[in-house]
Give the backbone structure.
Amino acid sequence: MRTVIHKLFWMWQLDEEENWINEMSQHGYSLEHAGRITFEFDETEAGKYTYRTLFLKGSGSSSENIKYFRFLEDMGIRVVSYINYPGTCIVYTRALSEDYPEGIDLFSDIDSKIRSIKVYVGYMIFVMAFTLFASLLNLSVVLGNLQHIMWVNILCAIVTFVLFVCATVSTVRMLIEISKLKKERVIHE
């Protein structure tokens, strides 16, 4: 029976996402498709599969990545799904746990991870600027008209400021993740 779960993982939670998918496998669910916030599972024998997510340069349908996917299949590793981002893709793979008792050890392109997170940072900076502007605009309307307070503007100012704070926290966490990945890249080089 197919089970669809909607779960949001932020870009700095890549390891948590992979761990969650492997936990689902331990509970008897095999990942069949992954989207940005949608995960589709089929019921299976508990712990049958081990999962690994990785980043690759380019689109998941590029000829270079298709060749790599065929190579993985020859090793008993199946590409379950992939999600394209600008210049990179996240690939969800699985293998039989009995064939890979220590887990699947695949190279994940650190530069592609960094590039993907930077794209999100760009989006978040736009969101930060927009929400801060909207909050200040609504606040100025309220302050400019003190004798006739506009509750809608106050509410909008509060909501957009909260969104600004959330976007700022997300951006900072992604920048911290980029810093960690850059340090990891130096270690591997």
